[in-house]
Amino acid sequence: MQDQEELARRASTGDRAALEALLAEIQPSILRRCARFLPCYQDAEEACQDVLLQVARNIGGFEGRSKFSTWLHVIIANSSRQTYRSLKRRAVEEAHEQPPIDVADARTTSVIAGSRLDLLDALERLENRNADLVGPVVLRDICQLDYREIAGQLGIPEGTVKSRIHQGRAHVREYLTAG
Prior knowledge:
It is built from nine helices and no strands. By secondary structure, it is mainly alpha-helical. The protein folds into two domains: 1-103, RNA polymerase sigma factor, region 2, helix turn helix motif (Rna Polymerase Sigma Factor, Chain: A); 108-179, Winged helix-like DNA-binding domain superfamily/Winged helix DNA-binding domain (Arc Repressor Mutant, subunit A). The model is unreliable at 100-113 (pLDDT under 50).
């Protein structure tokens, strides 16, 4: 097993074998991380495949200014949130096209699934209100990056990261308690 940072560096220069080794190496952890965001395993698998595809397509843009794992966290967070939005949109479209059927609401059948859905809804509401606050909150509270890594990834001062996380958490808390 080679170091992921080294594989990413080599893959970013066009080394196809390094890219294939990197994708195989990171796939299990991507799936686990996507599952932190999404309540259903199949949805996490879908997001995982999207992340792997994005890594393969965009590895040439990885410049090594931040750690590969930090770069990957951002892709995972964005892909998981995009998968959730897509699933919500599909559910609304299907509800209009088909007669209603009695399907159990994940929020009542699983506390964990419900809390994830509530959090994703709150993050979506926050994004509509102030998109600058979402990234720092997701990177800190879900991806568990430290403030320095977040500042480096987003290209903003550490103090700004802390301020945005504080503001974002306050809004998310408000959305979660109002629901």
